[in-house]
């Protein structure tokens, strides 16, 4: 009888908090894009939806997929990033300037949320990246000469392979 009371007491006591688990399951309050840009998570709207596809009985009961909505115009992104993001031809952007992403590649809601955040960050990173302007260069006189000499020698080799002309 005494053993049963002790067992129920042990089950009702909460487990001690592990700092590593807290860091893993309590998300940061911002989504970091790069060293200078980060977005507060309050600007990102996340809705849990039911995932499509195989999953047996579980698929009809659990809302594990994620719809992420991010309003670019109302965000705290720098204006240059907003303009580049809005002008980008992308089917995930609505006419109102809202990015809509769907993540359902994982089985859990938390994993799909992380995946959606990662895809949003990557999309913004690609939009704000400014490629270096190409500097037009010309081949040197020696390089042009070597190329034409190789071309002429190759032509002579191929000319030697032809049937002789009897005319």
Q: Would you give an account of this structure?
A:
The protein has 167 residues and is α+β, with helices and mostly antiparallel strands. It has a domain at 19-130: Double Stranded RNA Binding Domain, CATH 3.30.160. The chain is built from 5 helices and 5 strands, in the order ααββββαβαα. It has helices spanning 2-12, 19-25, 79-86, 109-128, 141-160, and strands at residues 30-32, 38-40, 44-49, 65-71, 98-103. A 3-stranded antiparallel sheet has the order 3-4-5, covered by helices on one side. It has a two-stranded antiparallel sheet with strand order 1-2. It is elongated and about 85 Å long. Mean pLDDT is 78; it is low at 7-11 and 21-27.
Question: What is shown here, in short?
Answer:
The chain is an alpha+beta fold.
Would you spell out the secondary-structure blueprint of this structure?
Layout: H1 2-12, H2 19-25, E1 30-32, E2 38-40, E3 44-49, E4 65-71, H3 79-86, E5 98-103, H4 109-128, H5 141-160
Antiparallel strand pairs: 1-2, 3-4, 4-5
Going across the biggest sheet, name each strand in turn: 3-4-5
Broad CATH class of the domain at 19-130: Alpha Beta
CATH fold type of the domain at 19-130 = Double Stranded RNA Binding Domain
**Class inferred from helices and paired strands:** alpha+beta
Which consecutive residue ranges, at least 5 long each, have pLDDT under 50? Answer: 7-11, 21-27
CA-based gyration radius = 31 Å
Q: What's the architecture of the domain at 19-130 in CATH terms?
A: 2-Layer Sandwich
Strand content is 5-15%
Shape: elongated
Tell how many strands the DSSP assignment holds.
Answer: 5
Mean pLDDT: 78
The sequence of SSEs as H and E is HHEEEEHEHH
Q: What is the share of helical residues? A: 25-40%
Largest sheet: 3 strands, antiparallel
Q: Alpha-carbon distance between the termini? A: 119 Å
């Amino acid at each position: 009888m005494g053993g049963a009371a002790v067992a129920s007491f042990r089950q009702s006591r909460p487990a001690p908090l592990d700092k590593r688990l807290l860091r893993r399951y309590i998300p940061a309050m911002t989504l970091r894009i790069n060293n200078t840009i980060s977005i507060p998570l309050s600007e990102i709207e996340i809705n849990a939806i039911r995932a499509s596809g195989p999953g047996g009985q579980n698929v009809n009961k659990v809302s594990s997929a994620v719809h992420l909505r991010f309003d670019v115009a109302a965000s705290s992104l720098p204006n240059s990033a907003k303009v580049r993001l809005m002008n980008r031809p992308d089917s995930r952007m609505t006419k109102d300037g809202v990015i809509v992403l769907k993540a359902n590649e994982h089985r859990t809601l938390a994993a799909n949320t992380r995946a959606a955040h990662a895809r949003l960050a990557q999309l913004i990173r690609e939009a704000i990246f400014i490629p270096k302007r190409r500097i037009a260069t010309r081949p040197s006189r020696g390089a042009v000469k070597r190329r034409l000499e190789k071309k002429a020698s190759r032509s002579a080799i191929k000319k030697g392979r032809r049937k002789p002309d009897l005319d």
